[in-house]
Amino acid sequence: MKKPIRIQSDTIRLDFPILHAHNNLAYLDNAATTHMPRQVQDALMHYLNTSHGSPHRGAHKLSVEATNAYDKAREKVRSFIGARFSEECVFTRNSTESLNLIAYGYLRHTLKPGDKMVTAITAHHSGILPLQMISEETGATLEYLYCDDDGRIPVKQLEKIDLDTKYVLVPLISNGLGVVHDVRLISEKAKSVGAVFAVDGAQAVGHIPVDVQSLQADLFLFSGHKILGPQGIGVLYGRKEILESFKPFLRGGDMIEYVEEQSATYAPLPERLEAGTQNVFGAVGLHAALDYVDTLGVQNIRDFEHDLTTYAFSRLKNMKGVSIYGPNSSQERGSLITFNVDGIHPHDVASILDHYGVAIRAGHHCCQPLMKHLGLTSTCRVSFSLYNTRNEVDQFIDALQKTQEVFGNA
Questions:
Q1: Does the annotation count 147 as an active-site position?
Q2: Order of strands across the sheet with 322-325?
Q3: What is the CATH number of the domain that holds 355?
């Protein structure tokens, strides 16, 4: 077990060149995308300068080295999330593609009229939209686990997961409210009726310890760009016995064994679900990002971000004219906070904060059903990573107070 350390954000920030390219920028939009440390950038440049080739396609040195880099990245992912076998980890472009792979590769040919899919109202659009498509095409119904005002899913809602339910999808951490869902409880309910249980870990991986075995997840997914890695690389984990029932989402090079004029046989996992020349560059970057996180320790990162989020929450809570959404307990909250300022549209808040060098997110955060359920149209969101500081939180609060003054709301 990694020895606990105290993360020093001032030291950590030295690893992130972009933070020094923009003086006085408080980047608080990490739930959308994180920045890459120089260790990840160095790994990417080393790969491009020494090992760049087409994986699985040739016998020459560069092809072999690209293949090795790709395979090592997959093994790193397996170890990081606690998968049993490396072939249970399929590389995708992002969480959105992973969720569509589940829909097209599995649900589309397994569901029928009378079957039910259940997802949390806190799910991201990328989880909801593929299920709507599956409902239209198969006749299976789509139901929602509704949350209370704090974002928690009441136990009573789990009664919707019944014997007709074949698939359940829940985000581990809601990108709209920051609530950490009790996925173990939901998993146990899904298992009791024989449903496949999927967890969207996009807001969780790299922020809190994640083990797919402990979560009892049949399917689990995340994106590299939310965990200090490059954009364009993601992961779909699936228990081997479930992935083996997936039909290929894309068909082409590298996912076949033999092709005849009128038929084909497909390669085993994971290649069968990874058609075409793969993003080795992205996989190398993700590998380096996971190494970076492991060096610091995920629990240490969790402790640091929890302390910072708690500080920001307390400062926001003491401001007049500010409404905070999601759980009041910081123990049930990830490293993000959504809020609104009385009388000021979230887009105006974000624009004025940008003038003062504070980057936040404003809008519906790709969760409009959740917003409607809560009686909202949009909110402001601040989200933290290991390179943020209390001084940046103070900068954000000062800028927010100035925003209120601009609108005469101070």
A1: no
A2: 322-325, 336-341, 379-383, 361-363
A3: 3.90.1150.10
